[in-house]
Structure formats: C-alpha cells, structure tokens
Amino acid sequence: MNITTQAMKALLVNVLLALATAAAVFIAIGGGWAVAKYTGILPLKKTKKALTIDNTPITVEQVKTIGELVTASFYDETVVIVKQKREVLKKGSKKGKDTTITRIVRIPEKEATGQDELVLVQNAHARIGIDLASLSKDDLRINKSAKAIEIKLPDVKCLDFIMNPTDTDVFSEKGTWDLDQLKLAMAPARQEIEYKMNKDTMLFKKARKGAEDVITQLLSSAGYETVKVVFASAKNAELKLPPVEQ
Questions:
Q1: When comparing pLDDT for 32 and 98, which is higher?
Q2: pTM for this one?
Q3: If phi over 0 gives left and psi between -120 and 50 gives alpha, with beta otherwise, what is residue 195?
Q4: 167 alpha-carbon distance from chain centroid
Q5: Which residues, at least 6 apart from 75, have a Cβ–Cβ distance to it below 8 Å?
Q6: What is the per-residue DSSP string for the chain?
Q7: Alpha carbons 158 and 124: distance in angstroms, whole number
Q8: Which of 25, 74, 176, 230 could bridge across to 126 with cysteines, CB 3.0–4.6 Å?
Q9: Is the Cα torsion angle 57, 60, 66, 70 positive or negative in sign?
Q10: CA 118/CA 174 separation, integer angstroms
C-alpha cells in the first residue's frame, strides 16, 4: 500500500506540474492580454515600432531657390525663303533725295524668282518649364499635423529659346546679304517655330506632368505624406517665346 500511495502522489505532482506549465504557456501566448487587463503586467510580445518622419519644414524661399525648373524640351527646324524689298518712305524734292529702306520679307516657295533671295534652314531649341522664383507665401498651404501640403505652381512657359546664326544653314544665297539682314531673315523662322511649338499640345501636358512629378518627389522627401500640386491656370497657356536679346 505504501508503494502504491507514493506512486499516486508522484503521478499527482506530475499532473499538477503539467497543468501549471500549460497555464503559463497560455498566459504568455494566448491569455496574456487578459491577465494584463487585470494585473497590469504585460505579456512578452514583440511590439511594432511606429513609423516616424522627421519634420523638415519647407519654406517658400527654399523652393524659390530652385529657380527655373525645365521639364520638357522642343527641337525643330524650318525652311524660310526671304528676299530684300526696297520701299520708298518719302519722295524726293528739289531740295532733298528719296528716302528708301530695305525690308526683309518672307515669300512662298512658289513665288521664288532666284534674285536677291536667301533660303535658310533654321534649327531651334526651346526649353519648357516653370519659374519657381515667382512663388509667394500664398502659394503654399501646409497642415503640419497631417503632414500634408498643397502648392500652386505658376503656369508652364518657354524659359529659353535658342536660335542663332550658328544654328542656321544657308541653303541658297543670291544677292548681297550682311549680318544684320541675316538676323532679320531669321525672324520669320522664329515665328514659325513658335507656331509649331504651340500646335504641339502634348508638349504642354508633358511639361506640366514633369513639374508635378518633380515637386511631388521633392516635398515627399521632405517628410510630407500628402502632396497636392495645382497650377495657376487650369487651361493650357500659350507658350510665348522670350524676347529677342539685343
């Protein structure tokens, strides 16, 4: 009887130890939060760290320092036929002489006569984008708590236009032409390139999309989670060429 009693006691102790172990596992894995609710003791559990973004404020002045942002380019060439046309401004008198000027006029190919004509093949390069230097404080709206920013960009425009005598091929030259006349002959080509550039509707959209992508990436890298980019005008603006430098 003594042996049997001791065996039963040992078995009972083992059962109690097994139950205690199972309970401990349950508390650590499944019932830990229930225990924590009443005891204030948190179970062992890996916690996920919250994502934090350093607050890097962007001011209008910082964005303005970027200056001109080129987001699209336009390349083209055009053929221009011009001639010299002499016009009398004032008829002469007994005391004076006739006053005449020489104008450079563009003529259609079918009207070419081969006399005093200049045939030019003009190459041009235009850079399209936005001028961030024109931003004002009213163009930025910031919600720091929500890490959100809205920026209103100026209209896309032609920032630079490159067309000079070095980019011009003289296909045919008849008569006498000096450098000043050559510059005047380039004016019709400039007008035609401007017309072609504005006919290219995808150019304007490409420039806007490029500006939106660059500004969004810039502000996102500065810590803003929500970036909204709008433009000063909802419609496509005419891409006027910069004035000719004298």
A1: 98
A2: 0.61
A3: alpha
A4: 28
A5: 123, 124, 125, 126
A6: -HHHHHHHHHHHHHHHHHHHHHHHHHHHHTSHHHHHHHH-PPPS-PPPPPP--------HHHHHTT-EEEEEEEEEEEEEEEEEEEEEEE---SSS--EEEEEEEE--GGG--SSSEEEEEEEEEEEEEEEGGG--GGGEEEETTTTEEEEEEPPPEEEEEE--GGGEEEEEE-S---HHHHHHHHHHHHHHHHHHHHH-HHHHHHHHHHHHHHHHHHHHHTT-SEEEEEES-SSPPP-PPPPPP-
A7: 13
A8: 74
A9: positive
A10: 6
Q: Is 215 exposed, middle or buried (0-12, 13-18, 19+ CB in 10 A)?
A: buried
Name the residue type at position 245. E
pLDDT at res. 50? 46
User: 147: phi > 0 → left, psi -120 to 50 → alpha, else beta; which?
Assistant: left
Tokens linked to 31: 């019932």
Closest by alpha carbon to 215, among 60, 74, 73? 60
Q: What residue type is 229 in one-letter code?
A: V
Closest alpha carbon to 124 in 92, 152, 158: 158
- Under a CB-based contact definition with an 8 Å cutoff, are residues 149 and 227 in contact? yes
| Cβ-proximal residues to 32 (8 Å cutoff; 6+ apart), any chain | 42, 43, 44, 45
Give the model confidence (pLDDT) of 198-232 as tens digits. Answer: 888 789 899 999 999 999 998 898 888 999 999 98
Q: Which residues partner with 133 through β-bridges?
A: none
